[in-house]
Amino acid sequence: MAKGKATSELNIAIIHPDLGIGGAERLIVDAAVELASHGHKVHIFAAHHDKNRCFEETISGTFPVTVYGSFLPRHVFYRLHALCAYLRCLFVAFCMLFLWPSFDVIIADQVSVVIPILKLKRSAKVETNNNFTASTFANTFIHLNAKGIRPAVLYPAVNVDQFKEPSSFKLNFLSINRFERKKNIELAISAFAMLHSPEASLTIAGGFDIRLKENVEYLEELKALAEREGVSNRIRFITSCSTTERNALLSECLCVIYTPKDEHFGIVPVEAMAAYKPVIACNSGGPLESVKNDETGFLCDPIPEEFSSAMAKFIKDPKEAERMGREARKHVVDSFSTHTFGQSLNRYIVDIHRGKED
User: Fold this and answer.
1) Which candidate, 299, 243, 298, places its Cα nearest to that of 271?
2) 289, exposed or middle or buried, with CB in 10 Å at 0-12, 13-18, 19+?
3) Are residues 329 and 347 in the same domain?
4) Are residues 196 and 141 part of one domain?
5) What is the DSSP letter of 79?
6) Number of domains, the chain
7) pLDDT tens digit sequence for 4-32
8) What is the rounded radius of gyration, in angstroms, for the C-alpha atoms of the chain?
9) Residue 44's closest CA among 34, 55, 54, 29?
């Protein structure tokens, strides 16, 4: 950046593999929106962006989205998904390198293999979104950690203004996750079946991409499990719901069930709490930092018995779910709002650039 250019007007590029409708994409979109609101020029580069299956902000004109490499394969005979993701992002990085002028700051998300290429334009800074991820970085990159190289921690956030306090609710449990096996959604079904509560229901919603074999297979596996457990008539599956539909589901549910184990952060619990809903989650990974046990929800061992026991408490006393939901909302407003996130991210980005100028 030329000397004398205002630090409040940085040109920022964000590179992300696939702008779908998952938690990682929600974080990137929120980051772009917040940085743009602070006066920066933000540009997202991706290997895929389906305008019929994306967050509204990516097509509203708040910031441009440029796609390179959508013709490249996502897999080779349903194998080598990670390698294909690396190659697609490398192609995006090379296009940025040769077709675009230098950016003041580049944020590389998820696929770190592009960093050496991007450094040809601008040096990079490692950033993580919670302490669990930071500890994973330390355990993985032992030599870097020994040299005192530490990633900065910046928690993701949600726009709390999109959620209004619900006036009523149903005895419905809600699970929101991508339809991927690592999300452990079968835990929610098995725990729900153990309730033996005919008045309760379970909604399983989340990101679904028909191009992905795992998404298709896992959805069928979950439906088959519901049949075997004898609760298929009280479980509803919703694929790739819009933001408006998701917010309506959150508003009407009793609480949110979050089943991934060792998730690096997980935006769903924060969104649920912002919507005045308590969360039942695994006692590992990101939820240890976002959910206050016995205050804004329950943290449980990842077994059906424990999850079912926590769910039964809310069936027995729905008013307790309301009380915890109000406390959850306050917790998110204080710690995870987009305003707090945006200020921290902006300060971090500006400080990085100022350090480079110096």
Assistant:
1) 243
2) middle
3) no
4) no
5) B
6) 2
7) 344 468 999 998 888 888 778 888 898 99
8) 21
9) 29
- Find tokens 């039942």 and name the residue: 280
Q: Residues 6 or more apart from 196 whose CB is under 8 A from it?
A: none
Sign of CA dihedral 180, 185, 187, 189: negative
Whether the model pTM is above 0.85: no
Residue matched to tokens 């995006």: 92
Encoded tokens for 202: 């379970």
Give CA–CA dist 275/288, Å, rounded: 19
Which strands make up the sheet holding 172-176, listed edge to edge? 235-239, 201-206, 172-176, 255-258, 279-282, 297-300
Residue 207: partners with Cβ closer than 8 Å, 6 or more residues away = 20, 21, 22, 177, 178, 179, 240
* Rounded distance between C-alpha atoms, residue 214 and residue 236, angstroms: 20
Residues 326 and 346 in one domain: no
